[in-house]
């Protein structure tokens, strides 16, 4: 077995680095055939060979009864150390985690005297892997015939599979730990496996699929994905609802929801404070949430929607509503409002997860207070025009005025009183 890696050689006796820094190397392991003994039997001796620019012929190390220690604490990060007794040297290895784990497993089998396919390399004739044979980091598949029969290289960082009639995202793709960019646009996917949430993707393109049929968004709850995703394309998927877990992707910079069937955007969208580009053109939006004012967006594209006119019916009802005695607010809601008002930090584990979600996602009244368990009367649809103060560029159809949905804390809320005073002039 041979792997491409970076290796630094350290002498344990002198504590000197034989190589001043990690260098690109080839590490090989296999059996060396020795001369026949008096009985005519051939002895096999397990060896490891290190090929590098400084040692093109290879530095050879015996393995059996010659291993001082093997440190694998950081093997998931692609790092390991193999120490030999003679010579007293440590090999500090940095490699792809999957390949490194395979190499260490092969070493373990060899030390136990077991036979394995990866140990059938004739180590005496082994050579370095050519530098041109660098690990493949990018793959583009544009038709079914290009799909790899032997599987995907574990070293891939970018994978594109377009217009290939793909109906299922395989577990193998979800196991590519080095993957940061995935584009599977133009296929027939109806569901994404939850295992995809384990990948630290920065860019994910799922446009022109059929994800709106099942509306299964469990994969968006994956910790690694939600903490790393910066660009997401869900255009042309037949979505009728905004994916609820999407607001937890707080590092999202660009979101494309074009050509779907969305009627509304949630108030919880205010959690996406890193969002700079929001594309929701060619949907069925009737209004926007007032929470859109909390975002700092460079480009908001809402062209080709069905924005409805001012809702005079709800405005009249609010104008005629009488102010009754407000019921006392629960203590946990008062605590959440205090944390939000004073902008206190929310370190992990400091507060219950439910309370953190409430603080980050619950609608805010026009007076700035958090609201929860709203009654139907507290949600007013299309009663104010958004100012778009924090929107640098707005694209919309000018034949439609855009109105926003708002929430109010209750009849005694200051914002409610202001709206009532305004509407009472229009609807006496």
UniProtKB/TrEMBL annotation:
Residues 1-121 form the PIF1/LRR1 pleckstrin homology domain. Pfam families: LRR_1, PH_LRR1. One of its GO terms (cellular component) is cytoplasm. Keywords: Leucine-rich repeat, Nucleus, Repeat. It comes from the Eukaryota. This is Leucine-rich repeat protein 1. It comes from Drosophila kikkawai. The gene is Lrr47.
């Amino acid at each position: 077995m041979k792997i491409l890696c970076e290796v630094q050689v350290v002498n344990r006796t002198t504590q000197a680095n034989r190589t001043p820094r990690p260098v690109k190397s080839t590490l090989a392991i296999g059996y060396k055939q020795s001369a026949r003994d008096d009985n005519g039997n051939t002895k096999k001796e397990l060896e490891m060979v290190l090929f590098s620019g400084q040692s093109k012929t290879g530095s050879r190390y015996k393995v059996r009864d010659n291993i001082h220690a093997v440190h694998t604490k950081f093997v998931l990060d692609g790092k390991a150390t193999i120490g030999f007794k003679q010579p007293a040297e440590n090999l500090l290895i940095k490699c792809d985690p999957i390949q490194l784990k395979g190499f260490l497993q092969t070493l373990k089998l060899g030390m136990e005297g077991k036979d394995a396919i990866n140990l059938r390399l004739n180590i005496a004739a082994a050579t370095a892997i050519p530098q041109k044979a660098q690990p493949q980091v990018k793959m583009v598949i544009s038709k079914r015939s290009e799909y790899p029969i032997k599987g995907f290289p574990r070293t891939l960082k970018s994978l594109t599979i377009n217009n290939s009639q793909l109906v299922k995202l395989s577990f193998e793709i979800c196991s590519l730990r080095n993957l940061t960019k995935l584009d599977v646009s133009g296929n027939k996917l109806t569901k994404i496996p939850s295992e995809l949430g384990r990948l630290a993707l920065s860019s994910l393109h799922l446009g022109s699929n059929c994800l709106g049929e099942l509306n299964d968004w469990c994969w968006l709850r994956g910790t690694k994905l939600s903490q790393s995703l910066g660009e997401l394309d869900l255009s042309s998927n037949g979505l009728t609802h905004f994916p609820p877990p999407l607001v937890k992707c707080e590092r999202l910079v660009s979101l494309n929801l074009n050509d779907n069937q969305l009627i509304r955007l949630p108030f919880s969208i205010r959690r996406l404070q890193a969002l700079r580009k929001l594309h929701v053109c060619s949907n069925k939006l009737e209004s926007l949430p007032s929470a859109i004012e909390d975002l700092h967006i460079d480009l908001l594209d809402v062209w080709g929607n069905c924005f409805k006119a001012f809702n005079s019916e709800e405005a009249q009802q609010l104008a005629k509503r009488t102010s009754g005695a407000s019921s006392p607010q629960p203590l946990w809601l008062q605590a959440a409002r205090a944390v939000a008002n004073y902008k206190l930090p929310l370190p992990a584990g400091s507060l219950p997860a439910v309370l953190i979600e409430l603080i980050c996602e619950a609608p805010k009244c026009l007076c700035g207070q958090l609201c929860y368990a709203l009654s139907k009367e507290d949600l007013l649809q299309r009663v104010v025009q958004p100012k778009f103060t924090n929107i640098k560029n707005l694209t919309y159809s000018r034949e439609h005025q855009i109105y926003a949905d708002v929430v109010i804390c209750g009849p005694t809320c200051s914002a409610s009183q202001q709206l009532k005073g305004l509407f009472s002039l229009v609807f006496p």
